[in-house]
Specification:
The protein is mainly α. It is 86% helix and 0% strand. α1 packs antiparallel against α2 (33-55) and α2 runs antiparallel to α3 (60-80). It is flat and about 45 Å long.
Length: 101
């Protein structure tokens, strides 16, 4: 019963992610890139949630791939909030320059 509930959750999250993707593409076609970037961010947040729930139900080989995707999305969110926060990008860049020098 618990696994069915989680599978339903994953299906809803995938559905939301697909909806965000469709809206994003529609906005891009209308040359509204600013709003499209917000839906791209929401699409990636939904992907993070999907991968978090999916990680518990997969085999070891699939878990490694899912874990790598989760790590990449976490880094992407931390360094730039999915390319929507210029201040975070600048802060991260300056911090990395300071560390490397």
């Amino acid at each position: 019963m618990v696994n069915n509930f989680k599978n339903k959750d994953i299906k809803h999250i995938k559905s939301m992610r697909d909806s965000f993707r469709v809206i994003k593409h529609s906005l891009i076609e209308m040359d509204n890139n600013l709003k499209a970037s917000n839906f791209h961010k929401l699409e990636l947040y939904a992907k993070e949630i999907e991968l978090k729930n999916k990680l518990k139900n997969e085999t070891n080989k699939s878990q490694a791939s899912i874990l790598l995707d989760r790590i990449m999305l976490l880094i992407y969110r931390t360094t730039s909030d999915h390319h929507t926060n210029l201040l975070t990008i600048l802060n991260f860049t300056i911090m990395m320059i300071a560390i490397l020098e």
